[in-house]
Amino acid sequence: MRSVSVIVSAALSLFVAAAPAADLDLPAIDGAKPLNVVFILSDDHRYDVMSFLGHPWVETPAMDALARDGVYFRNAMVTTSLCSPSRASILTGQYMHNHGVVDNNVATPPATVFFPQYLQAAGYQTGFFGKWHMGGHGDDPQPGFDR
Fold first, then answer.
1. What pTM was computed for the model?
2. DSSP 10
3. Which residues are marked as active site?
4. CB of 70 within 8 A of CB of 38?
5. Per-residue pLDDT of the chain in tens (147 residues, 90 and over written 9)
C-alpha cells in the first residue's frame, strides 16, 4: 500500500481553503506523476462489512482489491450524520455551518468550490456516480465533475 501520509498530504494540498471558483490556479510540481484517485463514499455502511476486514459472509472482491492495491483508511469520521451535509463537507473541506447544506434538502450556494474542481484544473477527468442531493437535477453533471 502507498503511504497514507503522502496521499493525505496531496489531498489536503488540493483543498486550499475554498478559493473562489475563478481562481483555481495550482502550483506545478516538477516531475510529479499524477496518481489515479478513486474515492468511494457509501451511505449507511458499517466500517467492518467488507470481506477483507473479516466479515463472515459478505463478499466484496472489488473492494478487497482496492484495499490491497491502493490505500485503505482504517480510521475515519464524519462531521455530521446526515448524508447531504456530510457529502458537502467531504467535497468542500468545510463544516456544515460554512457550506450551508444543513439538511438533506438544501442546495449548495452557486459559488461553492468542490475539491474535484481542483482536480479538473490539474488535468484530471472526474466523475460522480450516485445521489447528489445538494441541488442540481438528476443526471446533470455537477460542479467539479465531467460526468
1. 0.71
2. H
3. 83, 133
4. yes
5. 444 444 444 444 444 333 444 567 777 778 888 888 888 887 777 888 999 999 999 999 998 998 899 888 888 788 888 888 999 999 999 999 999 999 888 888 888 999 999 999 888 999 888 888 887 666 677 888 888
